[in-house]
Design a protein that fits this description.
By secondary structure, the protein is α/β, with parallel strands linked by helices. The chain folds into three domains: 96 residues, MurE/MurF, N-terminal domain (Udp-n-acetylmuramoylalanyl-d-glutamate--2,6- Diaminopimelate Ligase, Chain: A, domain 1), CATH 3.40.1390; 220 residues, Mur-like, catalytic domain (UDP-N-acetylmuramoyl-L-alanine:D-glutamate ligase); 155 residues, Protein-Tyrosine Phosphatase, Chain A, CATH 3.90.190. The chain is built from 15 helices and 26 strands. Helix 13 links the parallel strand 22 and strand 23. Helix 3 crosses helix 9, helix 9 runs antiparallel to helix 10 and helix 11 packs parallel to helix 12.
């Protein structure tokens, strides 16, 4: 697709051009390896490398335009230079223009928070689709353009891929798009240039401090999303979260609240809770849902509040909510012939793990034991590791510490970090088995009929990442095989 440079440079972008603004651009990229003749290359300063170091390489491969924060000492006459304050922000703005501002042609709703993003965004996509309306989904698990499945590589794609996917949704006739908005994507300007009709805040707890360094920085990253929402948008926040109202205190959008414990615009009460579902009272209407746990009650309430904000009928929403099923890897359960229940959940933060275990303990009988198999990811926030272990031992009868995605770390080192959070008096109920398959096998062998095994941390993932290699590994698949092989 060829377009003149000046046509993707909006007046709102503070920039300085050296060269011809009428030059034609055939593609845009921030990766010098993808540069071809007529490319516009964005020199982005990343966490691993600085794109400014690749400017000459990009020009030698045919780049006709370079967008950068610092002009090279020696300018190449064959290229036009666009000097900007922030290349990553310019990439978002110009990528949106290059693809024809697709977010303005959709009703785009962003979901941000520590936990619940995937479930909320996915179920919104499914419900809208059930109304017979074409929609798109951008999530951690999978992306959808109407009913076409696209593999997901990041929680929030980069600026170019994101606008490309949104433009495909427009071409396919989608009216809505629901997307997870990660804290990384906000501070890295991956959503710059997008126009949202609404934003949802689920909750905020301990996570990603390896990247954000402090919890306050993490809060501020999430808050930026709401700060930048337009006046015509809605900002739906969880009023029960202690930072729920902080998120929306500076937004221009119309603030709406949801909650279970506090007074809110949309309110819910859990009447009954079982392993096969919950009976909820949502805005004075009783609704049976096949989802389980207080955390899912919050997710359903966020979905209900969002659809109300989008103009859908209350009765229609509640009727369809009763038919939704769990998202892959989110409190999915498998039963053995002998009556053992295995629950597979993506819980990979202390709060998420506590939510899942609390749900299990509130539903199970006094005679049922809870066996938790849990680890922590490598090359990620180390401070949450001891907290994860403590939450597990405080809420389980037996804990098996095992490998998650060690990435480039040694699994033993990760598990040693986790052990620091285990109180001495709880040490007897903790076993360490590095090999995750063996850990799952051991949990199955130790379980009595009617016991509950929680496999936490990986959820929907179908791989285990070790030393840069993704090896096939699916917790649900593994526990099913164990149940069959061991005939329990």
């Amino acid at each position: 697709m060829s377009i003149q440079l000046k046509k993707i440079l909006p007046k709102t972008l503070n920039h300085q051009i050296t060269g011809d603004s009428n030059v034609l651009i055939n593609s845009i990229t921030f990766d010098s390896r993808n540069v071809e003749k007529g490319s516009c290359f964005f020199a982005v300063k990343g966490t691993q490398s600085d794109g400014h170091a690749y400017i000459e390489q990009a020009i030698s491969k045919g780049a006709s335009v370079v967008v950068c924060e610092d002009l090279p000492q020696n300018l190449n006459e064959s290229a036009t230079y666009v000097k900007v304050k922030d290349s990553s922000y310019a990439l978002g703005i110009m990528a949106s223009e290059y693809y024809g501002n697709p977010s303005k042609k959709l009703k785009l709703v962003g979901v941000t928070g520590t936990n619940g993003k995937t479930t909320t965004a996915t179920l919104l996509y499914k419900l809208i689709s059930n109304f017979g309306i074409k929609a798109g989904l951008l999530s951690t698990v999978v992306n959808y353009i109407a009913d076409k499945e696209i593999k997901a590589t990041h929680t929030t794609p980069d600026q170019i891929e994101l606008n490309n996917l949104l433009s495909q949704m427009v071409a396919e006739g989608c009216e809505y798009c629901f997307m997870e908005v990660s804290s990384h994507s906000i501070v890295q300007n991956r959503i710059a240039g997008l126009e949202f009709v609404g934003g949802i805040f689920t909750n905020i707890t301990h996570d990603h401090l390896d990247y954000h360094k402090t919890f306050q920085n993490y809060i501020n990253a999430k808050k930026m999303f709401f700060d930048n929402l337009p006046e015509h948008a809605f900002a739906l926040t969880n009023v029960d979260d202690k930072n729920g109202m902080v998120m929306v205190q500076n937004t221009r959008a119309k603030v709406k609240t949801y909650g279970i414990k506090s007074l809110a615009d949309v309110h819910c009460r859990i009447i009954e809770s079982h392993f096969d579902g919950m009976l909820l009272n949502i805005d004075d209407v009783e609704v049976w849902t096949r989802l389980i746990g207080k955390f899912n009650a919050y997710n359903l309430l966020a979905i209900y509040g969002t659809l109300l904000s989008l103009g859908f009928d209350k009765t229609e929403i509640l009727t369809r909510l009763s038919n939704v099923t769990a998202v892959s890897g989110r409190f999915e359960y498998v039963k053995s012939n002998g009556g053992i229940t295995a629950i597979v959940d993506y819980a990979h933060t202390p709060d998420a793990l506590e939510n899942v275990l609390s749900t299990i303990n509130n539903i199970k009988s006094d005679t049922q034991r809870v066996i938790t198999v849990v680890g922590a990811g490598g090359n990620r926030d180390k401070t949450k590791r001891p907290e994860m272990a403590k939450v597990a031992v405080d809420n389980s009868d037996l804990v098996i510490l095992t490998s998650d995605n060690p990435r480039f770390e040694e699994p033993e080192d990760i598990l040693n970090d986790m052990k620091q959070g285990i109180p001495k008096e709880s040490g007897k109920k903790v076993v360490t088995i590095v090999n995750r398959r063996e850990a799952i096998r051991t949990a199955c062998l130790l379980a009595n009929p009617a016991d509950i095994i929680l496999l936490a941390g990986k959820g929907h993932e179908t791989y285990q990442e070790i030393k840069g290699v993704k090896n096939h590994f699916d917790d649900k698949e593994e526990v099913k095989n164990m149940f069959n092989t061991l005939a329990i």
